[in-house]
Amino acid sequence: HSVIAGGTSYEEKTVYVKASSFENGGKYLIVGEDKPSNGNKIAYLNNNGSEGWQTVVPNAEGQIEIDNANAVWTASGDAKGGYTLSNNSRYIGGTDANTLKGNSRDAVKVTYDADASRLKTASGTTRYLYYSTYNSENWKWSTSSSSSTSSRNMWIYEQETVRVNVSDPVTYTVQASDLAHIQGEKTAQLQFSLLADGAAAEMPAGGYYSF
User: Fold this and answer.
1) What is the mean pLDDT of residues 25-49?
2) The pTM is what?
3) How far apart are CA 109 and CA 86, in angstroms?
4) Taken in order 125, 128, 131, 132, is the CA torsion positive or negative?
């Protein structure tokens, strides 16, 4: 005889995975490099209106885990016209001096070029977003994609909900008693019970016996 079914407990958690483009309503981290030579990854944070950053490192599955709502930008728009990125009534603007804006009219439409790892403006004079370490500057725009400060890689990571295994699978087995054969009625009865990892248990939902 054999059975049955195994069961595993899961929990859901929010992670961020590398994306190839923006989608309307999607939630994103904007991630750049501290230095091209070491590839440190920096998440863009708005910190209640002040530009800031936090070092983030993807795990073995390429996922970034970060518990900071100030790092998460919501995209609205479309591929043709570009996307506005907003966070807590702050918007990414397209000026060279200050990236964060407090009014939607100052927002700039952006696109993402996954092949070149560049975040850039969608129309007008093309500007490229980069992370600057010069003189305490943080996030800046540049019309050049090849200068020493603006040629660093830029990525977008999209929010995703994943299920994580939080328990080992349970092995279900059948424990049978002696077979009782009643010759006069030409029937046989088998008494059995269910064990889960060796302990008495009820049949799990959706479980079944197979002989």
Assistant:
1) 75
2) 0.72
3) 11
4) negative
